[in-house]
Amino acid sequence: MTADSLDALRTELRGMAEPGVRVQQLRVLRPPEDDELLGVRVPVLRGLARAYRDLALEDVEVLLRGRVHEERLAGLLVLAERMRTARGADRAVLVDFYLAHTGCVDNWDLVDASAHVVLGPWLVDGPADAGDILDRLAGSSWLWDRRIAVVATLALIREGRFEPTLRLVRGLCRDPEPLIHKALGWMLREIGRRDAPRLVAFLERHQAELPRITVRCATERLPAGERARFVRTR
């Protein structure tokens, strides 16, 4: 695609803005003051990303480095669309690009829309340095890198591979940020959806170390009596 395509995407994006949606998103996302929030619904953005999935990576970079929130999200969704059909070396190129731009993935919705569908499939492929990449992200001082590490493992959970997530939960359970606590609980809940006994066994062993919100999120889908056993002590 050409620069004309980037301009066309930006024009379409602004035409999709809804003032009412913007008001709601301002309350939920609480973007920094230098962010411009247009008020575009996420399903609409996903459709736009499908239409522009062949946008050049240099144009995706322009979107990611801008201060329009929906442009950054659109760029990440384009990467996700590309990742769905990429294989081998093409996947590695997309992952390298994503990892080089995590500084632009600077809110929880941007992380949650991209980590498991851009970085996640590469983790599923089982590259030798996957563990090192997760450890580097989890050890970062940048909050969003840490959340990326956690949420990316959703792709592994969906394949029945739980240990990378459980290892991150153990390593990040004392993280100071509530947004990490919530992400840990979310991933544990996803494990419990697939293997409730595994989740229960993990909680029995580690619940004293886990933040309260993590335990509450993790146990949401357990039977009421089982959930109460963990939540009442928090």
UniProtKB/TrEMBL annotation:
Domain of life: Bacteria
InterPro entries: ARM-type_fold, DNA_alkylation
Pfam families per UniProt: DNA_alkylation (PF08713)
Protein's name in the database: 3-methyladenine DNA glycosylase AlkD
